[in-house]
Specification:
four-stranded mixed beta sheet, 6% strand, alpha+beta, 250 residues, homodimer
Chain lengths: 250, 250
């Protein structure tokens, strides 16, 4: 049962998706949480656990538009960045000072922008259509995504690490922004291996951060567990080799 | 000169864009601010005022990825939602309690998601290509955007207003989330007038909120001033009649 966990996460049970950014934060902090929709249906799990929240008409409930959403302390919060901004300080994954918190949110939002673009590379027309029904448009969008957007975003993050006062995106402590960037790098490596390999020599600090996050004791245990859903072709990052290519020099 | 304003906003000087969400918050609160790039170049303005920040290599500076960004109290914050989350409480445009602040950020992020989709309706392949070079894809995407996404988002926001404990998205005080939703409604009315007209009878609370925001004394004065840049075909919301249509019933 879910009654004794401090956090209840609601997200699609078969993909990493945006929910993975919340899972990583909860896991990194060793938080007491339940990934509700991954429970058996007999214990209140499954995708159907999500549905009642989306059409909710409870007064003052701030009904979610879509998963992920998180229930904690009697409230429900939706939107990945809003959830992270709320739980980050509680989990020790955000700085104490308000300007620092704003910067960590800023970095998480930039990573989220890249996630949207990675998704739309295979779904440029509509999320409600199959990939196969928008493949010609995807080929066109992905080519520009790989040639222009991936290097622009990754060199930007590399620059943040070059100018950080520590080894993390914000100073000398890991924050939820680092977890978001870690997830983006893992996803891009899965979906666009040729692109990332061709860029790897230019993003040494980013790859070192990715390795450092993956080696954190709790994160390493999580990644090795069956709680980490493998990447697959239903999520944001999809291995469609026809969309992947080396990044042109320059 | 800009030295005496509490807030310096940096955003492209010829479009509303995402910067408008910051402008509206500063205007609604009567804040002391300068819209730096709208100053004459002789006074440090113009788009070139933005550039030095983007390639910045200052230690610990959290260099912006893109405008808008805001300079205040010696720090620079980028990403629209991070800026609003930071200045909202300072401007009296966010609740006092943390759950309330999370919900207001949640609503602003949902409005921001709709803004991304409104932009990509005319630029489904790449921001770096002209509309004319992705028009066939835009026709396809916009048709689904109007038929599925606009009604889904707007009925969602209408539901939030139905269940709010006050007349605003979050309770009985206007927040920056209301300003974001106001801007989305104004933009959709400009870019998709047939779609919005066909939906109008189903979103009375949303249209009443839009009118209420527009009638706020400071907002009304702003909208009537030359500080409000008119909508145009360089921004997020563009009047391309071929992309607009009535929302199919059902």
């Amino acid at each position: 049962m879910t009654a004794h966990a401090e956090y209840e996460l609601y997200y699609w049970p078969t993909i990493q998706g945006r929910g993975e950014l919340i899972r990583l934060a909860l896991e990194a902090a060793g938080a007491s949480y339940v990934d509700v929709a991954r429970l058996p249906e007999s214990k209140g799990g499954g995708a159907k656990a999500i549905m009642p929240f989306l059409g909710g008409k409870k007064k003052g409930a701030a009904t979610p538009f879509a998963p992920p959403f998180l229930r904690t302390g009697g409230i429900v919060i939706a939107q990945t960045a809003a959830i992270l901004s709320y739980i980050g300080p509680r989990l020790g994954l955000a700085p104490e000072d308000e300007p620092g918190r704003a910067h960590v949110l800023q970095h998480a939002l930039t990573a989220a922008d890249l996630i949207v673009e990675a998704h739309d590379a295979h779904h440029p027309i509509a999320g409600s259509l199959y990939y196969e029904d928008q493949k010609s448009e995807a080929l066109r969008r992905a080519k520009i995504f790989v040639a222009e957007r991936v290097p622009k975003f990754l060199s930007y993050f590399e620059g943040l690490l070059e100018t950080s006062e520590g080894e993390w995106l914000h100073g000398d402590r890991m924050t939820y922004a680092d977890l978001c960037f870690f997830q983006v790098l893992c996803g891009l490596e899965y979906a666009f291996p040729r692109a990332i390999t061709s860029l790897s020599s230019s993003i040494p600090l980013s790859l070192a951060l990715q390795e450092r996050v993956g080696a954190q004791k709790r994160i390493a245990a999580y990644l090795a567990s069956d709680r980490r859903i493998p990447f697959n072709e239903h999520g944001i990052f999809r291995k469609y080799p026809e969309l992947d290519s080396e990044v042109p020099a320059g």
